[in-house]
Amino acid sequence: MRILRTGFVLLPLLLAACSLPTKPTSSASLPSEPDTIDSSQNVNDAEDVTEPVVTKALETTQLSKEELLAKYKSLQTLAMQNIQELETRLGHPLNETSLSIPSTDDVAMLKSKVAELSSYTNNLTSQIVELDKRVEQRRESPSKGDLLQVHLSNLEVTEPTSFNAQPLVGNWIRGESRVVRLKENFLMENSTSEPLNMTFTETYQIIINDKLIGTFGPNRSIYELEFDAPTVDNNGKIVGSLKIRIPQ
Q1: What's the rounded Cα separation, in Å, for the pair 200 and 90?
Q2: What span, in angstroms and rounded, lies between the C-alpha atoms of 86 and 127?
Q3: CB within 8 A of 68, min separation 6: which ones?
Q4: d(CA 77, CA 83)
Q5: pLDDT tens digits for 134-152?
Q6: Domain boundaries, the chain
Q7: Could you tell me if 165 and 155 are in contact, meaning their C-beta atoms sit under 8 angstroms apart?
């Protein structure tokens, strides 16, 4: 009887519990949080993109006359370096462009000249990048005349300290310019040495330290001659024998 009575007491409580409302667990409301995060990230991304653009636009508009002239001079130096590299590696002069610093008090004119020179310098840099790509393509798949095997021997360097350099052998790709070191003794770590900048131009010329040594077309397989060239600092001379072989 006690058990039966207890059952009658608990039954209403169980029914009441079953009728209580529960916390909704629908997933329809869950995506709203990521949507909010994504939108805030998009705002931050937009700020990251637009901020450099605004900064770049203000770069010249906020410069004084003196700052504009200094910027022009810096661009002028870079442009001249690019022109020299291109003319040396291509083997012919570029079209002349005036790089003289404008003598004017017109700030608007200075801004225009800076923008013009900046565009020109970027174009020169792009030409160097394209030339580097052509050199690498020739390195991977050389046509006849694109690869030279260079032998330097009987090398004598005359400077305040003169010395006889060891023979040097290397490969050059058409359009490539690079610096090697002539050494008195390869076995000594601090051996006397002299830099030598050799260029094999796109027009089949060999240039050593800015001096034209000769033009070597792809129709002959072997060239050999005596040469002399200035040292890099123009305070001395490098003489020796140059032998070039063009692989068939």
Answers
A1: 9
A2: 8
A3: 60, 107, 110, 111, 114
A4: 10
A5: 999 999 999 989 999 999 9
A6: 65-140, 147-245
A7: yes
pLDDT tens by residue, 195-213? 999 999 999 999 999 999 9
pLDDT score at 97: 83
Q: Which of the residues in the chain have pLDDT under 70?
A: 1-61, 248
Residue 4 one-letter amino acid? L
pLDDT value of residue 217: 82
Query: Both ends of the chain: CA-CA distance in Å?
Result: 116
| Ranges of H-type helices in 1-106 | 2-18, 32-61, 65-90
Phi-psi region of 212 (alpha: psi -120 to 50; beta: other; left: phi over 0): beta
- 168 — phi, psi (to 5°)? -135, 135
